[in-house]
Design goal:
The protein has about 325 residues and is an alpha+beta fold. Helices cover about 35% and strands about 25% of the residues. It has eight helices and 13 strands. The strands form three sheets. A five-stranded mixed beta sheet has the order 1-2-13-12-9, with helices on one face. The protein has a four-stranded antiparallel beta sheet with strand order 3-6-4-5. The chain starts with 7 loop residues before the first helix and ends with a strand.
């Protein structure tokens, strides 16, 4: 579109991940030559071929993504090996296989209409209200009464907001807590009514240990902020199951070379139309799966399967 500076999209185009003829469902063509020209100054500076310079840019971008994912998992006490990585957005499925491998997640899942996932979420989500009330209080004998009173008031506020009966709402309660003298807090899921202060303390100690790897059972704890989430029942947007009719061969669009920097070479990679892949299909990487709003890359040593509702599931085979 007239720009001259290289982008990650240019890099994915040069390495063969993006299809210049079918980008955005074929609505406009990508110019490989202009992408290469944009990378030429950087390639000369690094002493690399343009495709290798493009791969270096991709690696740098993905390193930043991995750091953020580790911040949200490892540094918060969650083991990525216990988790599934959901990859959405127009660009997410191009990077997800690499991120999943680096993090060691169990699987990577690419939802249907990945590039429209945020809009889809707006259609599928139930109307929600989040209420917070800051009220400092040490955990003690009067804690159950205080918790019940605050959450009852927040529940009344939520029902008034939705102008409906409480039976039509789904509630979730949490309390931000800390040890006396701390600046930061941790969120502790709780019930709006608790049996005893010991219940809150036990949940807080466990949450603090998960987040910060230690607990201080002899240190007084205090409640800081009460958080109530209310969701209203609404018609749910659902996805129909995919037909099992059709074949993998019929979904194949062709093949093209894709540069894999960790191997330092290009591999001939088959290309498939996501809309034509039947439920139950299984493909061995390397593979590219295209749809109008996204492109999913599957690495060598990985396998992709199509779940009955159309989810793409990527798992390591080694």
């Amino acid at each position: 579109r007239g720009g001259t500076e290289p982008t990650v999209t240019d890099a994915k185009l040069l390495t063969g991940v993006l299809d210049p003829e079918r980008f955005a469902g074929g609505q406009f063509r990508l110019d490989v030559d202009r992408a290469a020209a944009a990378f030429a100054p950087l390639a000369r500076h690094l002493g690399l071929p343009p495709v290798a310079a493009a791969d270096a840019v991709i690696r740098l971008a993905e390193a930043g993504m991995i750091n953020v994912l580790k911040l949200l998992t490892v540094q918060r006490g969650h083991d990525p090996r216990d988790l599934t990585l959901l990859a959405a957005g127009g660009g997410g499925p191009m990077h997800a296989a690499v991120l999943g491998r680096e993090l060691g997640v169990r699987r990577v899942v690419v939802p249907r209409y990945a590039g429209l996932f945020s809009a889809w979420g707006m259609l599928a989500a139930r109307p929600r209200l989040d209420l917070r009330r800051t009220q400092f209080a040490p955990v003690g004998a009067d804690t159950p009464a205080l918790v019940a009173r605050v959450f009852a008031e927040l529940r009344a506020e939520a029902t008034a907001y939705f102008a409906t009966d409480a039976a039509a709402l789904h509630f979730a309660a949490a309390i931000d807590m800390r040890y006396a003298g701390q600046e930061h807090t941790v969120a502790v899921a709780t019930a709006p009514e608790i049996a005893s202060a010991d219940d809150v303390l036990a949940a807080f100690h466990a949450a603090h240990e998960q987040a910060y790897t230690f607990r201080l059972p002899d240190t007084p704890a205090e409640m800081v902020t009460f958080h109530l989430t209310a969701e209203r029942d609404a018609p749910q947007v659902t996805l129909p199951e995919l037909p099992v009719a059709g074949t993998v061969a019929a979904a194949r669009l062709g093949e093209r070379p894709v540069y894999f920097g960790e191997r330092g070479e290009s591999l001939v990679t088959p290309l498939f139309d996501r809309a034509a892949l039947p439920a139950g299909a299984r493909l061995q990487g390397p593979v590219l799966v295209q749809e109008p709003t996204a492109t999913t890359l599957v690495l060598p040593g990985q396998a992709l399967s199509v779940e009955r509702h159309g989810l793409l599931v990527i798992e390591e085979t080694g």
